């Protein structure tokens, strides 16, 4: 049984001798309460949203179409600038205490015709037949003052919570270039500039993929801000507004979990934390959850597992980033707030299948009570398929392949995105999605994956279409170039370069979208930032400590590479395995896995022809480099083999790396349009980006944090929770970052 204390805030329940069925009931009640709050907020918005006379028909973005015919124009909306007291304290979890919860979400769009109008007198001269008594004059004065005050109050309420010129909708697109430091921007830019000096035959493969050059051999202005004098820049270059300081609450060098939580919860936390504060490990409301509560649609796009640290920090709350099955439960909606994510594209399918799936763990009522989750009713559900739950219970449209994605999206057609329905979950790889250079070279249709640019454009089309038809607000979309970071962890300049270019391509598309949306009268802004730098990349390397280095690095060294070192290492591993199976078949007997089962002659030829020459694009390899490769293969040391291959190409390009981990340098901060992001100009703490999003979207993290903590003891695990180690499925510091 449970006892409810009348002295507690709404929804805060005290338990005595609770049973697990009652726990499930209360969690469902909490979801409904949160959902009802959200629906009430939406219904309180003004229905007087008029179409802009300037928003005519459809506007093209690249080769796809955005239909802006129904987007509301807020250019004439009554607005009032409001100054906020920014909290610079990194441990401050919530927004200003003086915000009144009762009216925080009651914004109104009041046209001039709806405001109280003064009475128009036919003559300013008083009637000679009737003189008003003095008390009547006082009543009129008081009444007039009341009407003026009421009008001002309505106008103030209409714009409460933001100092920006919008009272109804504001779209925010947060782009995160994981592991991308200042040197990475220079690295990619100078590679592209070097292409301009190359013969057309040598750069053809780049032209086919990236359209870097026009028919006259000039850098394509659609990709770069071309400057003939200096060789051009990348799409991010003109958007630079400042830098972000990246330290976490417990280290000068952050990890992705703490880095992303700084953006999502607007607070510093410890490395490894997903959506929890550092002191007591309590859940903290995120900008995505608050946006959903406020009436926005929400989306996530990533090239990592969608349960990985960065995307997870926007919708999940766990004390350890490795708890990815539990994180998957949050994504589909089986958490304390219900479903907060409307659209999610990425990898990580394995955490949604029955082999890996386990229910969200709750604290047992007693030592003899079996461990249960919010939707756990029997032992068979411990291995439930989360994809089935997503489809059946939470009504997700689940996409499992590039073909399904392309069929739904119909990219490039007049109905781009029209057949993708929210909520939608796209899982295009069992693990992380492929590095861009490997994705582009896939021939087998069943192994193809959508590009970051196409996933992002489909997300923009889908969310904007549904937002303007069903929401009084806009949308929040997080886009992550995830594998920029993972290539840098391997010190792989090839994988790092191509994923940066894929991210730049996506930036170009998003910027075009932002321009078109703003022209149509729908305020939209984009922010691009990294959670941290990875690898300690330097352009310039001293190869011999006894010889003073040459002031140079050589981007052309990367021109002939055809695969990431991860992909090349996997090819060697598969070759050895196939070779072993062939020898076993010929002998018709079992060979010990610890014996020398590899045909060294065949392996040597494969490594030389397919890996060194065909993969890295190197012909000047040394015998020592070859022997080291063979030794690592024989020892099944594939991690160090990947490092060895990466070092071979890095040395020749004279690219340096200081670590296989993260570094503590400040990272570049980009934003657009400049007028909309001017408050981020300069050197900023990463938490300030989260606070900026809260202000510009007029959302409230405190309300969501309150809802999360109402029954946190029931569903949330801390370091004091018994059997916690059972739920840590990965060890991300073993080549998982």
UniProtKB/TrEMBL annotation:
Residues that coordinate or bind Zn(2+): 485, 489, 531-532, 662
GO molecular function term, any single one: alkaline phosphatase activity
Biased composition (Acidic residues): 89-102
GO annotation, cellular component aspect: fungal-type vacuole membrane
Biased composition (Polar residues): 71-83, 114-126
Entry keyword Kinase: no
EC number from the UniProt entry: 3.1.3.1
Obligatory cofactor(s): Mg(2+); Zn(2+)
CDD domains: ALP (cd16012)
Coiled coil region boundaries: none
Catalytic activity, as annotated: a phosphate monoester + H2O = an alcohol + phosphate
Entry-linked InterPro entries: Alkaline_phosphatase, Alkaline_phosphatase_AS, Alkaline_phosphatase_core_sf
Family stated for the protein in its record: Belongs to the alkaline phosphatase family.
Record protein name field: Alkaline phosphatase
Species name: Phakopsora pachyrhizi
Higher taxonomy: Eukaryota, Fungi, Dikarya, Basidiomycota, Pucciniomycotina
């Amino acid at each position: 049984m449970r006892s409810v204390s009348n002295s507690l805030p709404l929804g805060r329940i005290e338990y005595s001798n609770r049973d697990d069925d009652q726990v499930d009931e209360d969690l469902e009640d909490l979801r409904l309460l949160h959902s009802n709050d959200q629906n009430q907020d939406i219904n309180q918005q003004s229905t007087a949203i008029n179409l802009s006379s300037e928003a005519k028909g459809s506007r093209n973005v690249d080769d796809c179409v955005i239909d802006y015919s129904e987007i509301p124009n807020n250019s004439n909306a009554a607005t009032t600038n409001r100054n906020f007291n920014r909290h610079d304290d990194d441990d401050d979890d919530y927004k200003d205490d003086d915000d009144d919860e009762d009216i925080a979400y009651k914004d109104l769009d009041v046209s001039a015709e709806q405001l109280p109008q003064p009475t128009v007198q036919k003559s300013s001269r008083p009637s000679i037949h009737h003189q008003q008594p003095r008390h009547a004059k006082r009543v009129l004065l008081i009444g007039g003052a009341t009407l003026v005050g009421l009008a001002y109050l309505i106008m103030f309420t209409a714009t409460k919570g933001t100092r920006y010129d919008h009272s109804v909708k504001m779209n925010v697109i947060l782009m995160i270039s994981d592991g991308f430091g200042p040197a990475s921007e220079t690295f990619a830019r100078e590679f592209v500039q070097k292409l301009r000096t190359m013969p057309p035959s040598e750069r053809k493969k780049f032209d086919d993929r990236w359209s870097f050059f026009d028919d006259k051999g000039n850098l394509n202005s659609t990709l770069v801000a071309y400057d003939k004098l200096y060789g051009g820049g990348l799409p991010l270059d003109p958007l630079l507004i400042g830098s972000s300081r990246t330290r976490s609450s417990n280290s000068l060098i952050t990890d992705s979990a703490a880095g992303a939580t700084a953006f999502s919860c607007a607070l510093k936390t410890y490395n490894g934390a997903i959506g929890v504060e550092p002191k007591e490990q309590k859940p903290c409301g995120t900008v995505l959850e608050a946006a959903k509560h406020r009436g926005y649609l929400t989306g996530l796009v990533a090239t990592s597992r969608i349960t990985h640290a960065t995307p997870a920090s926007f919708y999940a709350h766990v004390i350890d980033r490795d708890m990815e099955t539990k994180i998957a439960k949050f994504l589909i909606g089986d958490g304390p707030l219900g479903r907060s994510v409307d659209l999610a594209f990425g990898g990580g399918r394995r955490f949604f299948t029955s082999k890996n799936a386990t229910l969200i763990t709750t604290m047992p009522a007693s030592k003899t009570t079996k461990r249960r989750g919010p939707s756990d009713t029997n032992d068979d559900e411990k291995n439930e398929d989360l994809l089935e739950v997503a489809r059946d219970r939470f009504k997700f449209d689940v996409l499992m392949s590039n073909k399904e994605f392309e069929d739904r999206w119909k990219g490039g057609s007049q109905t781009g995105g029209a057949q993708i329905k929210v909520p939608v979950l796209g899982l295009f790889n069992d693990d992380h999605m492929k590095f861009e250079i490997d994705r582009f070279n896939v021939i087998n249709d069943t192994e193809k994956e959508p590009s970051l640019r196409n996933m992002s454009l489909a997300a923009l089309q889908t969310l904007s279409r549904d937002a303007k038809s069903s929401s009084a607000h806009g949308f929040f979309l997080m886009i992550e170039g995830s594998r920029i970071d993972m290539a840098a962890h391997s010190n792989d300049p090839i994988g790092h370069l191509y994923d940066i270019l894929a991210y730049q391509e996506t930036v170009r598309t998003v910027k075009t979208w932002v321009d078109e949306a703003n022209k149509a009268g729908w305020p939209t802004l984009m922010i691009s930032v990294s959670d941290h730098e990875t690898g300690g990349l330097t352009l310039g390397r001293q190869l011999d400590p006894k010889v003073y280095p040459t002031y140079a690095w050589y981007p052309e060294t990367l021109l002939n590479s055809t695969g990431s070192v991860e992909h090349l290492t996997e090819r060697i591993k598969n070759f050895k395995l196939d070779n072993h199976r062939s020898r076993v078949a010929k002998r018709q007997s079992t060979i010990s896995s610890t014996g020398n089962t590899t045909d060294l002659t065949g392996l040597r030829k494969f490594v030389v022809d397919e890996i060194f020459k065909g993969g890295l694009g190197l012909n000047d390899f040394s015998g020592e480099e070859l022997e080291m490769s063979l030794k690592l293969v024989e020892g099944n040391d594939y991690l160090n083999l990947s490092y060895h291959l990466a070092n071979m190409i890095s040395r020749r390009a004279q690219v340096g790396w200081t670590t296989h981990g993260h570094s503590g340098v400040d990272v570049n901060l980009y934003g657009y349009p400049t007028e909309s992001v001017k408050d981020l100009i300069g050197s900023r703490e990463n938490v300030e980006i989260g606070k900026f999003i809260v202000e510009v979207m007029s959302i409230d993290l405190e309300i969501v944090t309150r809802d999360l903590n109402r029954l946190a003891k029931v569903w949330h695990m801390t370091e004091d929770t018994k059997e916690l180690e059972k739920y840590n499925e990965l060890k991300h510091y073993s080549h998982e970052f």
